[in-house]
């Protein structure tokens, strides 16, 4: 089963230092070696985002995120693991787990047949 691990943290915190970046690379490498890593990326800050809405046939693009929150989506991983317990175990290993939060959400698979 695939899970998306959505990584939330306060983007106004100082950027990761060399030791924390090494920890991110280490856990990503462990995911790859375990054969569960499907993909993942870090995201630019919310100030670079655009929110799009279509209302009454009109498209409106607004600078910034839709909601103000204490933690912002900063990146994600997609893992192919047996179950939620395995996804939670991987999430707990991520360097931002002690200060931020990781939402583990199952990925839907649509039958196109």
Helices, strands, pairings?
Elements: E1 2-9, H1 18-34, E2 37-42, E3 50-55, E4 58-63, E5 72-80, H2 84-92, E6 101-106
Antiparallel strand pairs: 1-5, 1-6, 2-5, 3-4
Short description:
The protein contains two helices and six strands, in the order E-H-E-E-E-E-H-E.
Task: Give an account of the 3D structure.
By secondary structure, the protein is of the alpha+beta class. It has a single domain, classed as Dimeric alpha+beta barrel (Alpha-Beta Plaits, 2-Layer Sandwich), CATH 3.30.70. It is built from two helices and six strands, in the order E-H-E-E-E-E-H-E. The strands form two sheets. Strands 2-5-1-6 form a four-stranded antiparallel beta sheet, covered by helices on one side. Strands 3-4 form a two-stranded antiparallel ribbon. A hairpin with a 2-residue loop joins strand 3 and strand 4. The chain is flat and about 50 Å long. The protein starts with a strand and ends in a 7-residue tail after the last strand. The mean pLDDT is 93.
List keywords for this structure.
113 residues; Alpha-Beta Plaits; four-stranded antiparallel beta sheet
CATH T-level fold name: Alpha-Beta Plaits
How many domain units?
Answer: 1
| Low-confidence sequence ranges | none
Task: Report the helical percentage.
Answer: 10-25%
Quaternary structure classification: single chain
CATH homologous superfamily descriptor:
Dimeric alpha+beta barrel
Query: What percent strand?
Result: 35-45%
Shape type = flat
Radius of gyration: 16 Å
